[in-house]
Amino acid sequence: MQATLNRLDGLISRVLFVTPEAHIQPETDAQSENTLGLSLAFSATRCIIQYMVLPFLLPVIGLAGAFAVGITTAINIVAIAALVGSLRRMWRINYKHKWRYFALAAPAFVVLVVFLAMDVIALA
């Protein structure tokens, strides 16, 4: 089991273009938890804006259609970048809970890519 996990670890490191650091400083766990918290806070803010504010606010002020799709496209791109950035950090410092985060991040990444594709189709 450990050999399989090590192979998966190496594969994800290559996909993320990350080389794990040889020496991990003690504060990196706290920094990783702060990064994770920031990523989750961004995700929550993104969901509130994209699914609660924009559908109701934009039509009220007379903006909808392509403008709304452009905003959600930009939000999704930033969300994907933040997700990949936090995954890269977790793998670079070999954070002890990186697989737990990956279990949350992988489906979120797929959903974001699907939403981004839908936005691009709507803009085309």
Describe the structure.
- Helix 2 (28-60) runs antiparallel to helix 3 (66-92) and helix 3 runs antiparallel to helix 4 (98-123).
- It contains four helices and no strands.
- The longest helix has 33 residues, at 28-60.
- The chain is elongated and about 55 Å long.
- The chain has helices at residues 2-15, 28-60, 66-92, 98-123.
- The mean pLDDT is 82.
- Helices cover 81% and strands 0% of the residues.
- The protein is mainly α and 124 residues long.
Report the mean per-residue pLDDT as an integer. 82
What sort of overall outline do the alpha carbons produce when their principal axes are compared? Answer: elongated
Per DSSP, what share of the residues sits in E-state strands of 2 or more residues? under 5%
End-to-end separation: 46 Å
Helix amount, in percent?
over 70%
- Compressed to H and E, one letter per element, the order equals HHHH
Oligomer: single chain
Identify low-pLDDT runs. Answer: none
Based on secondary structure, the structural category is mainly alpha
Discrete helix count: 4
Largest sheet at a glance? none
Number of extended strands: 0
Q: What integer value in Å does the Rg equal?
A: 17 Å
Show the helix and strand layout.
Blueprint: H1 2-15, H2 28-60, H3 66-92, H4 98-123
What are its keywords?
elongated; 0% strand; 124 residues; mainly alpha; single chain; 4 helices
Brief sketch in words of this structure:
With about 120 residues, this protein is mainly α. It has helices at about 1-15, 30-60, 65-90, 100-124.
